Amino acid sequence: MPLRVFVTGATGVVGRMLLPQLRGRGHHVTALVRRARDADRLGDVDGVAVADVMDLRTLRRVLIGASPDVVVHQVTGFRSTDCASGMQRTAHLRTAGTENLISAAVSAGAHRVVAQSAASAYFPHGHEVLDEEAPLWTDAPGRWGAAVRAVEAQEEALLTCPDIEGVALRYGALYGPDTSFAPAGRIHRMIRGSAVPLVEDGGGITSFTHVEDAAGAVLEVLADGESGAYNVVDNEPAQSSEWLPAYAHMIGGPAPVSLTREQAREQLHWLTVHQLTEQRGATNFRLREAVGWRPVWPSWREGFADLFGLWPG
């Protein structure tokens, strides 16, 4: 059944992939942009609203005007900024921004809010691949701890509001067009420059999510699935000892250098060392069972190969 869908983060890497898919399924789409000139970056949509999610008064006005059935929240703060500042801004958007959006959505009569969350926020102990019942690492140090606490606060606001059905989609490491893994992206540059090493046995696990699969998951939960948190990741969680050399080879970069953990701690930010040595992966079982979602790119190997023109067809 066609729905009226309001999308924040419409010009982001997931938003740009999502908009044509929503239209392709017959949904009425209103895209939110912060500045009127940003509308030029949108594709074919039914309406454009101009507001900042941090401005509750304006946000409520444009949402009431759009009268959506579902609000899709895809805003992050990483564009055109360094990683630390982007993490801090994203944390603010996930707390105050989400609260504003939920309040405005309720005022507009929407019945569901679907928001981007993070599968990288799990406490790094226990099973290698974790489900949605695993605890989040809310006492992690520094900016990462603040980021995880923002994820927790966002999901609590989504899932406890009595007037809305909240769905939190916990994406893995996003890759695909215009992401940091794409040509000229931040991680692409770092790996080509030998700035991402293998640390000891490379036991840190990453669960990847192609932006096409992130958008596809949004489509599946617009009306289906119970309120809750869902991991949106591919079928092949990978240790850094697997994906890092494979990625470097695909982009024609040098083989990653090897460091001991002590060397890595001296040379790298602690969060990078954590990701390469201790991070846990995630399972997509709940989302598959709840709504029948299946990733278009079940393995990062195929997705990266396609990204770099190495996949047949």
TrEMBL record:
Any one cellular-component term (Gene Ontology): cytoplasm
SUPFAM superfamilies reported in the protein's UniProt record: NAD(P)-binding Rossmann-fold domains
Pfam families, sorted: Epimerase
GO MF term (any one): aldehyde dehydrogenase (NAD+) activity
Residues annotated as domain NAD-dependent epimerase/dehydratase: 5-232
Recorded superkingdom: Bacteria
Name of the protein: Nucleoside-diphosphate-sugar epimerase
Organism field: Halopolyspora algeriensis
